[in-house]
Amino acid sequence: MDTDATASSASPEIQSFEIEPKIVKAFFKTHEKDLNDIEARYRVEIPRMVEGSKLSLKPKNKCSAEEYDKACNCFVALYQKMYQLIKMERFSLKSERFIVASRMAISRASKTFPVSIERSKDRKFWELYGMANHIEEALKYLEQEEGVEIKRETENAIGGREWKKDLFSSSKGEKHPGELNKNRPENYLG
Description:
The chain is α+β, with helices and mostly antiparallel strands.
């Protein structure tokens, strides 16, 4: 019996990866074509709706263990690349006068550009996550196309990484998504 053929046709062991929910939306929008290519090439499904901070690629019918591992490697490499380049801009509205129209414009910007826009925990600010150029395009759109008067609140917004330290600090000593290593035992579902 050929052991290589048996090993490559074995059912894949499902792997789970830590992701950051605040940036995963921007990740999916920015790399939609690449993710679709991974799914088609390696016969896996990458869930686009993620609850919590774990994501598992799902093998489709006839996906071999080797294909699954390659798909996971491609996904992790793509995510880590994005994680290194992701930025955050915090902004507020200069005026509460047109709050409903401003919120609707922010919602449109979130759908139009490969960014993720959320309210801060204290609900005083909006937080925009994405690649630096996409953030700038979305902010320009809000100001120039939608007429939303915004005030940038983030010091050294496009360039600083201080927000990542806060975003990924953990009392459990867990690794943050920028340090994913698919071969570590904690990244596997049991």
